[in-house]
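Work Package 3 (structural annotation) set out to generate three-dimensional models for the target panel prioritized at the project kickoff. During this period the team completed the workflow that converts sequence records into discrete structure tokens, so that structures can be stored uniformly alongside our sequence database. As a representative example, we reproduce one entry of 109 residues exactly as it appears in the project archive.
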Amino acid sequence: MIECLTQRIELNYIIPAIRNDFIKILEKDGLSDAEISRRLGITKAAISQYKHKKRGTAMHFDTKILGEIEKSAGRILKGKNADSEINHIIGMLKKSEKICKMCERECSK
């Protein structure tokens, strides 16, 4: 039996992918790297890594989750905490059991 921690999947794949999408959206809205860094609570160096596709590229979301990421980015623009928005999206993935499918794929390697 293969054991897999969903937290590992969240940390290594889901959170970076969500942040990657947030960065793209916030950049389109005209925010500077420094402002995106401040709002997401990550370094400017991390922003650079996302932009150069060194982080957050191992996973892609369906249109429903992408729509929710777009809404969350709007809430971040209005001052909402990015971590709570990330947790909201992870909660959606858990409810839909998509995170289980991700675990199955990753942990069967």
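The mean pLDDT is 89.
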